């Protein structure tokens, strides 16, 4: 089956590839304008509505199964082989088209699922530098090094928020100690499993 997935789809496979892409656009990329009627009219105009509904349901289920498991190519091949052998499953030609679709769309669908699962802002970028204070209310703080940490927070598609933090040597050491404790806890938890 791997060799079949590499060759370009025959003319009969183009509507199925279009259907899979339409399912991905509607389900994972928020394109509400892609409806069952639009897909049927554009890709399968000669197919009865009930027959198309069954095909759409089957392909939607397969795409959702593949995407939710984030299947690699070996898992995909095993899954599609099982689908071709079960009664009412898919044909080997359909399996080849699905494999081609997943190979091209996996990264985009995965990113979309990750973005949909985020509730809060995430760290998009971080930069830091060390400066010397040249002005201060207290004379003893002049010429002391400070660490400046700048964080860019936000969600994809939205304007970012910027947060700037300033640490003197004592605060930086405290933060490094806490980060070390967190690292040790994560290490001990992962080694226990």
Q: H/E order of the elements?
A: HHHHHHEEEH
Overall structural domain count: 2
Number of strands: 3
Tell me about the largest β-sheet: 3 strands, antiparallel
Mean pLDDT: 85
What is the count of DSSP helices, taking H or I runs of 4+ residues?
7
Strand percentage lies at: 5-15%
How far the N terminus sits from the C terminus, by CA atoms, comes to 37 Å
Quaternary structure state of the chains depicted? single chain
Estimated structural class: alpha+beta
Could you explain how this protein is built, in words?
The chain has helices at residues 2-6, 14-28, 36-43, 49-69, 73-85, 92-117, 169-192, and strands spanning 122-132, 145-154, 161-167. The chain is α+β, with helices and mostly antiparallel strands and 193 residues long. The chain has 2 domains: 2-117, no CATH class; 122-192, no CATH class. Helix 2 (14-28) packs across helix 4 (49-69), helix 2 (14-28) runs parallel beside helix 6 (92-117) and helix 5 (73-85) packs across helix 6 (92-117). The protein is elongated.
